[in-house]
């Protein structure tokens, strides 16, 4: 039971400290939409999404009014389209993307995820077709998000896929060059991808999920930063305990909304993803949390240790609040979406190399990072390979969402608008890994993958 103090504290979190439900995401299985006819397949996919999610936005809005809790995004994720496109042509896969986009537009949701492929051990015909179609699909849609899982701790790293994704990212950037290469902001490359992630661009409806499901992503970096500032000069053990208790309270809000949404929509409740997902708004920043802990600037020496402590405490508090914590859960560090990260990158305190080190201890990976538009595809593949290897070696999810901003150089800034924010173009090493990337094949799974 909540006492009066808890109630007022939660109200203050919402109104003063930017606590919100970042997303309600409905996962929808498309397996029963299979068809040899491409037109029929698109029609069935459209009908399934519209019938399943027709009340999603309305339900989210009613919960907002009932509890006074902002719900920023209402989203849909679907079965990885590569699993549906084994006999579909390139043009047919692009038609599917446009079908997803049409459904998203008519539902009034923010994004739809699942234009995805799982190729950690090799390519199927469907996954090859989908990956080849990603640049065109993202260039001709507004709401569609795409992801490709190229590695896992069990399978190792598919370096042929890593090499291909460097080229795909470059092409996507070029085809959306008139919009700041925004297509790349909707494309993420994964290792150890979770199947229940409600956050874009990596969300899809996993093969082990129910027919439909509600997953909720809750976020509160401003709440955590405020709690740390109020704590004053306490030691790190006390600070970790404070973060854990704060994460517990945040997660309880997410659990409440998730249960309510599932009940109203008559679908199962899946997970609460407690990820401290920042926004460009001042105060709603993971970087500011780290600076509140005692760092002069995010990116200075000590940043990785502070982030490791934050991530661990958040997860401990979240798992005490809900038996179904999943997705990514921890702390996100997307540069363009975090006011503190943007400031740190602009002043040079935060570099790509430091971000890579930080990803070893946080929820995901190199996220929403703008790099020079002329960056070679092999260099992009090298960035992917480095980040993905961290995930494989550490049995954790890592990902890469980089934007080679067409026509931009280091020091420029590219704006995406809304929660995607703006990204300072960061320097990359230009020495080429082309020969290494060109060897292809698979980097074998690490020895600790043999746990059976």
Number of helices: 14
State the low-pLDDT regions, or none.
Answer: none
Q: Provide the helix percentage.
A: 40-55%
The helix-and-strand class reads: alpha/beta
Per the CATH scheme, the topology name of the largest domain is: Anaerobic Ribonucleotide-triphosphate Reductase Large Chain
| Integer average pLDDT | 90
The CATH architecture classification of the largest domain is Alpha-Beta Barrel
Series of H and E elements: HEHHEHEHEEHEEHHEHHEHHEHEEEHE
Distance between the termini: 42 Å
CATH class term of the largest domain: Alpha Beta
Task: State the total count of DSSP E strands.
Answer: 14
Let me know the largest β-sheet: 12 strands, mixed
The total domain count is 2
β content, as a range?
15-25%
Radius of gyration: 21 Å
Outline = globular
What this model shows, in words?
By secondary structure, this protein is an alpha/beta fold. It contains 14 helices and 14 strands. The protein has two domains: 22-191, Alpha-Beta Barrel (Anaerobic Ribonucleotide-triphosphate Reductase Large Chain); 217-438, Anaerobic Ribonucleotide-triphosphate Reductase Large Chain. It has helices at 4-16, 38-53, 56-67, 90-107, 125-139, 159-175, 221-231, 236-265, 286-292, 303-321, 339-346, 352-358, 377-394, 434-438, and strands at residues 20-28, 71-78, 112-118, 144-152, 156-158, 187-191, 212-219, 269-276, 330-331, 366-372, 398-405, 413-415, 422-424, 442-443. Strands 1, 2, 3, 4, 5, 6, 7, 8, 9, 10, 11 and 14 form a twelve-stranded mixed sheet that branches. Strands 12-13 form a two-stranded antiparallel ribbon. The mean pLDDT is 90.
């Amino acid at each position: 039971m909540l006492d009066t103090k808890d109630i007022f504290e939660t109200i203050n979190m919402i109104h003063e400290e930017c606590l919100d439900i970042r997303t309600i995401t409905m996962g929808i299985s498309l397996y029963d939409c299979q068809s040899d006819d491409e037109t029929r397949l698109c029609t069935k996919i459209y009908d399934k999404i519209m019938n399943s999610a027709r009340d999603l936005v309305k339900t989210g809005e009613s919960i907002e009014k009932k509890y006074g809790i902002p719900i920023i995004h209402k989203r849909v994720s679907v079965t990885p389209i590569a699993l549906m496109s084994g006999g579909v042509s390139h043009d047919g896969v692009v038609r599917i993307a446009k079908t997803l986009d049409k459904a998203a537009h008519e539902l009034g949701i923010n994004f739809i995820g699942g234009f995805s492929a799982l190729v950690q051990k090799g390519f199927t015909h469907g996954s090859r077709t989908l990956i080849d179609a990603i640049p065109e699909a993202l260039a001709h849609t507004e709401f569609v998000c795409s992801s490709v899982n190229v590695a896992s701790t069990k399978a190792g790293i598919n370096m042929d896929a890593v090499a291909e994704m460097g080229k795909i990212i470059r092409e996507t950037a070029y085809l959306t060059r008139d919009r700041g290469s925004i297509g790349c902001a909707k494309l993420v490359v994964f290792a150890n991808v979770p199947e229940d992630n409600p956050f874009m661009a990596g969300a899809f409806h996993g093969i082990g999920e129910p027919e439909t499901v509600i997953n909720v992503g809750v976020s509160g970096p401003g709440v955590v930063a405020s709690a740390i500032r109020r704590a004053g000069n306490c030691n790190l053990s006390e600070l970790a305990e404070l973060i854990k208790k704060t994460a517990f309270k945040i997660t309880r809000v997410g659990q409440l909304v998730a249960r309510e949404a599932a009940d109203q929509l008559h679908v199962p409740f899946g997970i609460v993803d407690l990820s401290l997902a920042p926004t460009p708004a001042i105060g709603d920043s993971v970087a500011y949390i780290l600076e509140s802990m005692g760092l002069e600037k995010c990116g200075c020496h000590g940043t990785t240790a502070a982030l490791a402590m934050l991530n661990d405490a958040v997860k401990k508090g979240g798992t005490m609040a809900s038996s179904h914590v999943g997705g990514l859960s921890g702390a996100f560090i997307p540069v363009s979406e975090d006011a503190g990260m943007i400031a740190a990158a602009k002043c040079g305190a935060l570099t790509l190399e430091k971000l890579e080190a930080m990803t070893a201890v946080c929820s995901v990976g190199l996220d929403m990072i703008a790099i020079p538009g002329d960056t070679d595809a092999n260099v992009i593949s090298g960035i992917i390979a480095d980040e993905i290897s961290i995930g494989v070696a550490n049995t954790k999810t890592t990902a890469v969402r980089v934007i080679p901003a067409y026509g931009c150089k280091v020091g420029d800034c590219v704006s995406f608008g809304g929660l995607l924010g703006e990204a300072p173009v960061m320097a990359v090493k230009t020495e080429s890994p082309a020969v290494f990337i060109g060897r292809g094949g698979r980097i074998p799974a690490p020895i600790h993958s043999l746990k059976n």
